[in-house]
Amino acid sequence: MRKSADLDEFDLAILEILQADSTVPQREIGERINLSAPAVQRRIKRMQATGVIQANIAVVDPAAVGLPITIVVEEVAEEKTAEAAPKKKSGKKPAAKKPAAQSAKTKAKKEAA
Fold this sequence. Notes:
Blueprint: H1 9-20, H2 26-33, H3 37-49, H4 104-112
Helix pairs in contact: 2-3
């Protein structure tokens, strides 16, 4: 199991800014969180080295570059028996099921009633 990185409030603020827009200059990040640009740079490099920041990527709109959108859907269906399948509502109440066997005590109570 990987040990969690020791991140302080400045690191978390840097990550929040980079997650919203990874092209924000380090100087601007520093201005926003009251750190110098070199301090921001050191923190970003440390987070990259420790794996906190795994990649800097660009999210591309497929339609804007003329690529079709591919959707992969996986469906898993379970086989159901006729008893487990949902029953249609007919407006009638289903008949009560009778127990297959009754104990002598239960039978005696019913007969006494």
